[in-house]
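ok, trying the design again with the full structure, not the truncated one.
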């Protein structure tokens, strides 16, 4: 069994797991649950569906990526949602860290692909939780209502397998493909993320709200039209 690194449980500047806001958020999400796996499942669904997916609400302000700030939001994209889940898990005593990968969205609209110059989205964020000696990769980006609207399979987590982006949608069309793993991190590498965005997507702006997040997935051809 893997030894638990204390860093996977400690609060950081972004993952402020001991803040009043995260304490309240985690407590409300897990309720009376005390089993780590049961708590993890409850946290997963709280983050997945409690914050509506919004790739256009990007912000360069570091303060907006603190878990305590995200816990008070109504919408978010994959990176902040992963920050929230990871911090809430640490608050509950579950070892957790952040994971990132580049993904190719085969359903990206022609408009967005032309703007970006690629179908590959860098730095898709997910959480990794250590349960019973096993790391689980959990993506909470897309809320259930959005999945139902666009005919994409919602990610589920029951404590037995990862919850990663589906390769196909409900109609059998190719959807998400993981093309590059960027590794795991004990805190949010925000500067590295935005530096990559500026390099990979030079024609796109990331200076505030109203711009689609290059590190997140355009959900379907419809959402960017």
């Amino acid at each position: 069994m893997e030894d638990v690194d204390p860093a996977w449980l400690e609060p950081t500047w972004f993952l402020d797991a001991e803040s009043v806001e995260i304490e309240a958020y985690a407590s409300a999400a897990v309720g009376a649950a005390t089993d780590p796996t049961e708590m993890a499942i409850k946290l997963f669904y709280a983050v997945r569906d409690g914050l509506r997916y919004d790739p256009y609400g990007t912000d360069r302000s570091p303060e907006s990526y603190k878990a305590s700030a995200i816990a008070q939001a109504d919408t978010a994209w994959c990176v902040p949602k992963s920050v929230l889940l990871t911090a809430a898990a640490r608050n509950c005593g579950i070892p957790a860290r952040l994971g990132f990968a580049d993904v190719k969205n085969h359903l990206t609209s022609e408009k967005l692909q032309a703007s970006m110059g690629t179908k590959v989205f860098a730095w898709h964020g997910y959480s990794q939780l250590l349960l019973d000696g096993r790391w689980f990769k959990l993506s909470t980006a897309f809320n259930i209502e959005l999945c139902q609207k666009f005919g994409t399979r919602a990610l589920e987590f029951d404590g037995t397998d990862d919850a990663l982006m589906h390769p196909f949608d409900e109609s059998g069309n190719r959807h998400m493909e993981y093309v590059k793993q960027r590794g795991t991190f004990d805190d949010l590498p925000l500067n590295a993320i935005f530096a990559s965005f500026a390099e990979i997507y030079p024609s796109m702006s990331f200076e505030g709200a109203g711009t689609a997040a290059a590190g997140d997935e355009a959900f379907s051809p419809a959402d960017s039209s």
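Keeping the full-length input from now on. The chain is about 30% helix and 20% strand.
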